[in-house]
């Protein structure tokens, strides 16, 4: 055992940290406190008798004070008595006592109106209670939640916040210290408090801290009673100067929202440790570097064990202060998001032990391409805010873990922690499951862009704020540095660009040169290592990728805005990522809707958004923009994203062989099983196994030879790629990818000839306005309204099928993406939603050849006010069992919108309970959001066809259908519609009209409008969705242009 040479003493570590601007250290052992620690609300009197209130600038409105008495930032770890305890990773066996739970609570309107509740004699018998972790607005206190996207919710006077309207939470808790904590340094650690706080123990002030999502730790050893009760008092301020740097797109919520820990550190203990792994040029062998810092001299023993419990390396050194161990490790298992192999590092002294899991991986740029362990990766990621529908940002562990399991099962491989460091336990789960992490500092000051002038000058390019910016970088890196899942740091979000970002970058790269740094608003990447964009069109990033010279990769830190019914056109981005090496992928905005569960005054439950809690200003339902609903169940958008980013792609069929490609970054397809079958209308064959080639490397192509025997009717080859073995995130047989290839084309739509009877249907004009058509098929009777030019009645065996007649329609309820882009506004401005069909002439006759009755209507479909129209000819052909409707139209006129939302028929049906169809399903699909839906035959109830978006909008469309039939409440057949070989036909069937959806702002409002009848839309064409709520609107190839058209549909 050799003696190590120290790098620096513990005292030097302390001094370096506390000499940092913004840190104030006060000796708690003295009886008197500095003036800045005196009770808020007191005034100061000058010699001439002038009184001034407050006596000094409050800490929470002073950017020169970031922390008082806070210990240096360190990695997140717990102290154990022995290595065997540490090895179990069970926090309950550590030297830790949780102070989370129930607190006595009082809310004051401002810091100056808060009582001196930290006095030990204070009477709190009239106080209420609150739970920690938690947000006080969600536990019945204060003004309630407020949502803004960019605006500050208070008058801007940086760095100051209002003295009067600044809710202040007063927390009190009694606790006893375990006897085992005797002779230990006792620390009080807050994992997250929004937005700033002072803390007292037993009536003595301990310190102050700000930085909501960053931890704060204090030494309270001298203040603790070991043999009697102790009182913890915490005063939390809703707003502080830190709030100017915490203007993220989320709810403004306040309180102690992460755990509080009481930690016992023995007399000799680890202050901190830093782990790095360095791979050789062949990415085979490694050096494990472990830098440890002690508060005293002691022997330090390190041992690295693998997943089987075998020791890989170990060593013992006599350490004075600090030392760096360097272990050569021969060909360790490599950590990636696809192979999350974790070793366990145990570190111990004579009196304690700590542990940290280790993943061997290496990040670098090679010729401008981002690589991990020597191989390029494609980020198939998502942004993730911390959100729970009832608890806000106080997210329970199991709820968070479910999020990450859901991500993995939907092929997501990366998270951007938008826009702050997350609960530290998330990184543990990411290490285990395998997720790349872009770890983002708690920084956004977007609101400065709304007040005029140069927004960067307020904070980002203002030297007075430098210490605040660097502190946020330091806190993030120091806490999270040892997690293998973190492959990049991010300097924050939407904070413009200035010298303080450079200072953050400089600090990070000196401390951690192993990771690259990201920041989108450094648009030219003059400081950071990655070029980043948000909501950039696919065309533009392709142009960037094609530049002749470049030395930095491009990532989309936000793209395909997942608001409401969408996103559309995801696949185009993914194809570009795979095609161009410079493009390293992107993070969808965002993971979850942020609705908060609440109730109307009548007790109707719903998910509230901005404005629903009386909050003003607010940004409405822009907070509902996630891949999962507010209860964190998948939206159709997540299902579509899973398909777009699937790790195996089916590329086509030629000469009886199916071409596939491995889209993983590091692994083969050996963990997958492939099955195939053939599906057709109303039938499907059984799955058969199909052998995958062994050791197919990432990016490589293979050819499979399926059994292609099939009938000579429209049908499809379907391949499914499933897990061979159970994983932490999915069971055996879980489908990770699929593909379908058309084998036979559909038949065109042919009108059946009247071969069973030469007579065919008869007609009679029973009134001047009504033409009645009767069929030889018993009980079939139609009535045609000659004034309106519509099929007004269809009776079968005396029962009326039609509730309202089919009419030509060009409008859909606007989606969030329509509303946010030019299309929805154009449709409303052109009054597309108000069009009506005005018949101009109706003629009818009977064919001498077929016996069919033909009714021809010329009409003008037009809105009020304006002069544009669609000049239309309808041809209805009646057989004994069918009605063939042909429509031709010519859009014309001034102020005609350049696109239509849809071209189709809208009608409503009586007594309809279910729909069965052949086409894509079972979920909803649209022109640019359909690849996740397999072609097959499906049957669903009308209620199940409805996607219940939290802000009502267009919903429930099924696309690429050949036919659909509607089934009555006694399982009797109703109407059937067939589209033949038309590509892109679709239908929807709801209990709501388009107007119902447009006029409702919440689901509970929509539910009251539910119809007994079923509103059916039979569409020949439907405009795409796009991502126009924040990003590119519907792409040109998915636009439904307002041009001449001709379509037909067969009803029976």
Q: Can you give a write-up of this model?
A:
- By secondary structure, the protein is mainly beta.
- Helices cover 11% and strands 36% of the residues.
- The protein is built from 13 helices and 63 strands.
- The strands form 14 sheets. It has a nine-stranded antiparallel sheet with strand order 51-52-53-54-63-60-59-56-57, with no helix packed on it. Strands 1-4-13-12-15-9-6-7 form an eight-stranded mixed sheet, with no helix packed on it.
- A hairpin with a 4-residue loop joins strand 47 (780-785) and strand 48.
- The longest helix has 15 residues, at 466-480.
- The radius of gyration is 33 Å and the shape is globular.
- The N and C termini lie far apart (90 Å).
- The model is unreliable at 1-18 and 29-38 (pLDDT under 50).
Short characterization:
The protein is mainly β and 1052 residues long. The chain is 11% helix and 36% strand. Strands 51-52-53-54-63-60-59-56-57 form a nine-stranded antiparallel sheet, with no helix packed on it. An eight-stranded mixed sheet has the order 1-4-13-12-15-9-6-7, with no helix packed on it. An eight-stranded parallel sheet has the order 31-30-29-28-27-34-33-32.
